[in-house]
C-alpha cells in the first residue's frame, strides 16, 4: 500500500495502520529533528518531539488533503513547527544542523590519513551549515541531506520555489565562503552535495 491508500484506510477507521505509516517516516523524522536540535544542545529531546510530531499528525489526519501536499511534506512541516515551538520555549535562538547518519565512508584502499581528512571535512561543513540563518539552514538540510525537491521544500518552509532556490544559493555561497580558508578549491568542489545545482 502506498501512503495515499494507507491514509484512506486510517481515515475509514483502520487506525492500526497508522503504525505502518509512522514506520515509513520514523528514521527520517528523527534525523531531521535531531539535526535541528543539535546546535542548541537539545538533541536529547529528539525522540519526544518525533513522538509529538506523529501524535499531532494523527490528531490532524482527518484534515490532511493530498491535493495540498504529500504526506511526507505535511509531516516534515509539522516536525519543523514542533521543533521551532520547543526552541522558542527553551528561549534558544539558534536552530541547529541535523546530524545525519550519512557519513562518507572511506573505501578499503583509502589511507587512514585520507579517511581522517574526509571526516574532518564533514565536521567543518556541518559547522558552517550550523552558522547559517534558520531558513537557509533548514533549506540546505532538506535539500542536501534529506534529498527533497524544491517544491517539497517550498511547501515545508511556506516559500515560493524561486525563494527556496535563492535561499539555497545564498546558503551554499555562505558555506563556501566559510570554508575557503580550510579547503583548497578543488577539494571543496568535489565535496558531495555542496555543488551548485
Descriptive notes:
There is one protein chain. With 197 residues, the protein is mainly alpha-helical. It has helices spanning 3-11, 18-38, 46-60, 71-89, 112-130, 134-145, 150-157, 161-179, 185-190. One of its GO terms (biological process) is DNA-templated transcription initiation. Residues 124-173 form the RNA polymerase sigma factor 70 region 4 type domain. It comes from Paenibacillus urinalis.
Main attributes?
single chain; 197 residues; mainly alpha; 9 helices; 65% helix; 0% strand
* Share of β-strand residues: under 5%
| SSE string | HHHHHHHHH
Helix count from the secondary structure assignment:
9
DSSP summary, beta strand count:
0
Kindly provide the radius of gyration, computed on alpha-carbon positions and rounded to a whole number of angstroms.
Answer: 18 Å
Profile the largest sheet: none
Low-confidence segments, given as residue ranges, are 92-110, 185-192
What is the arithmetic mean of pLDDT? 78
* Overall outline: globular
**Which structural class do the helices and strands define?**
mainly alpha
In percent, how helical is the residue content?
A: 55-70%
Organism: Paenibacillus urinalis
Pfam families: Sigma70_r2, Sigma70_r4_2
Keywords: Sigma factor, Transcription, Transcription regulation
GO molecular function, one term: sigma factor activity
Amino acid at each position: 500500500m502506498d501512503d495515499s491508500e494507507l491514509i484512506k484506510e486510517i481515515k475509514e477507521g483502520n487506525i492500526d495502520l497508522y503504525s505502518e505509516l509512522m514506520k515509513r517516516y520514523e528514521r527520517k523524522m528523527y534525523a531531521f529533528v535531531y539535526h535541528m536540535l543539535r546546535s542548541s544542545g537539545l538533541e536529547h529531546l529528539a525522540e519526544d518531539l518525533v513522538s509529538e510530531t506523529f501524535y499531532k499528525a494523527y490528531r490532524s489526519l482527518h484534515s490532511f488533503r493530498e491535493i495540498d501536499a504529500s504526506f511526507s511534506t505535511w509531516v516534515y512541516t509539522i516536525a519543523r513547527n514542533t521543533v521551532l515551538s520547543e526552541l522558542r520555549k527553551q528561549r534558544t535562538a539558534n536552530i541547529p544542523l541535523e546530524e545525519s547518519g550519512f557519513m562518507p565512508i572511506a573505501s578499503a584502499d583509502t589511507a587512514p590519513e585520507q579517511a581522517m581528512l574526509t571526516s574532518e571535512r564533514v565536521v567543518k561543513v556541518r559547522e558552517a551549515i550550523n552558522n547559517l540563518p534558520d531558513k537557509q539552514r533548514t533549506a540546505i538540510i532538506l535539500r542536501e541531506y534529506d534529498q527533497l525537491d524544491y517544491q517539497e521544500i517550498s511547501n515545508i518552509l511556506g516559500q515560493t520555489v524561486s525563494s527556496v532556490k535563492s535561499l539555497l544559493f545564498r546558503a551554499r555561497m555562505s558555506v563556501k565562503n566559510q570554508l575557503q580558508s580550510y579547503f583548497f578549491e578543488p577539494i571543496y568542489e568535489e565535496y558531495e552535495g555542496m555543488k551548485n545545482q
